Amino acid sequence: MAKLSLTFRFLRAIGLNYSEEEYGQVGLLTVIGKFCANPYHALLQSMMDWVIFAPVAARMVRPWLLRKMGAKVGKDVFIGDHCRFDLNHADMITLEDHVHITSGTRILCHRRNMDNYRIGDDSAKLPYHVLPVVFKKGSMIGMESMVMPGVTVGEGAIIGAAALVVKDIPDWTMAVGAPAKVVKAIQERSE
C-alpha cells in the first residue's frame, strides 16, 4: 500500500477514516471546500426542529429548508418533526407534489458497497454507492421509517410506520415491515 499523505494521516487522526480508493489523494483544502460547499447544511438541519417555527414548520419551513439544502421539493409537501435527510447528498432527494413525510423519518442516499467485502477487509474503507431517492406525487411515509438509497416510492403509495424501505414501492400500494413489503393494492373508488 502506498504511503498515506499528510492529509489522510491527519483526517484519520481526528477520526475521519476516508478511503483512498474512493477519494484518492485528497488535499486538506479540498476537504475544507467540501465542508463549506453548502453553508446551509448544519444550520438548516438544526432549524428543522426549532419550536419557534412549530405552527408553520411542517408545510412551509421544513420544505423550504430542504430546498435550500439542494433537494427537489414540490408543492404542498408535509415534513414532520425530527426527520433526517442525507445532508451531503440532499441534491439526490426528490419529493414530488403532496408528499407527506411523518415524524422521525430518515432518508439516505448513500450506503457502503458490500459487493467485494471479504473476510479480513476493513469495512470502513469500502466505497459508497450514492443513489437517488424519489417520493412520487401523493406518497406518504409513516413515522420512524427509514428509506435507503436508490428507492422510488410510487405515486399514492403509503409506507407504514417503522418500515425499512430497501426497494421500490409500486404506485397505489401499501407497504409495511422491515424490510417493507407490499401488503395491499389500493383500489379505485367505485361510485
Explain what you see.
This protein has 191 residues and is of the alpha/beta class. The protein has one domain: UDP N-Acetylglucosamine Acyltransferase, domain 1, CATH 2.160.10.10. Helices cover 23% and strands 21% of the residues. It contains 5 helices and 16 strands. The protein has helices at residues 6-13, 20-23, 28-36, 40-47, 54-68, and strands at residues 72-73, 78-79, 84-85, 93-95, 100-101, 106-107, 110-112, 128-130, 133-135, 140-141, 146-147, 152-153, 158-159, 164-165, 173-176, 181-185. The strands form 4 sheets. Strands 2-5-10-13-15-16 form a 6-stranded mixed beta sheet. A 4-stranded parallel beta sheet has the order 1-4-9-12, with helices on one face. It has a 4-stranded parallel beta sheet with strand order 3-6-11-14, with no helix packed on it. Helix 4 (40-47) packs antiparallel against helix 5 (54-68). The termini are far apart.
Key terms:
UDP N-Acetylglucosamine Acyltransferase, domain 1, four-stranded parallel β-sheet, about 25% helix, 16 strands, alpha/beta
Write the layout of secondary structure elements.
Elements: H1 6-13, H2 20-23, H3 28-36, H4 40-47, H5 54-68, E1 72-73, E2 78-79, E3 84-85, E4 93-95, E5 100-101, E6 106-107, E7 110-112, E8 128-130, E9 133-135, E10 140-141, E11 146-147, E12 152-153, E13 158-159, E14 164-165, E15 173-176, E16 181-185
Parallel strand pairs: 1-4, 2-5, 3-6, 4-9, 5-10, 6-11, 9-12, 10-13, 11-14, 13-15
Antiparallel strand pairs: 7-8, 15-16
